[in-house]
Task: structure prediction
Amino acid sequence: MPRAKDRGRPRVNLDRLTEILIRFSYLVADLPQVKEVDVNPLLVTPEEVVVLDARVILDVAAVEQPPKPYAHLAIRPYPAHYATTRNLSDGTPVLLRPIRPEDEPLWQELLDSCSSKSLFDRFQYVFTRTHEVAARFCFIDYDREMAIVAEVSEGGRQRLVGVGRLVAGSDRETTEYAVLVTDAWQGKGLGSLLTDYCLQIAKDSGTQRIVAITTADNVRMLGVFRRRKFELKTNLEERVVEVRKELLKE
Result:
């Protein structure tokens, strides 16, 4: 409720003030070199928001040796810079982007489009579909885990048809990789597209090696790994293949 003395005054531009605060949060997130900002006064009018005076203090150590992006934040923001559009071999455009918490309904639809074998090849067990499980796969810590979904326009709506996931180990030197592609989109090169993009993200993050496990009869994924010169080790007793690739050798 407005105070009595404020009645009759023009309404200030709250939308513009909200935009300024959001942009300021981006500055804090993107520039760890900024140690302190003092804005005083900040004038908010019906038309505009104006900074009349400000002081910025820089962290000299961060200026001389910039830390890794977002290392100064407790929670890493959504990595929108990883969103990119690529084309399959037949020219079909596919949006590759990090997964978001609100993707849960689309992620559930992705699972519904996969056969029992495809799900077993990916998870190595009978997969249970619950909200709690979906939240675990859609709401992630982008600092140690990355899930890149493949989004396409199909039937007038957006759908997820694949997902590649990277999970860093405690030492950050080894990263586990897994990929899932819906049955209707298998054999189109989507698994290769996701794998190449995830390998590039892993390399950029500084991980030293990629490891993965797939079933011995998952012919398509074994082919993807062989063409990228992964080392393959077959466990005949458990009918799985362990794959490994040293990124530092490239």
User: Anything to note?
Assistant: The first helix runs from residue 14 to 30. The chain has seven helices and twelve strands. The mean pLDDT is 89.
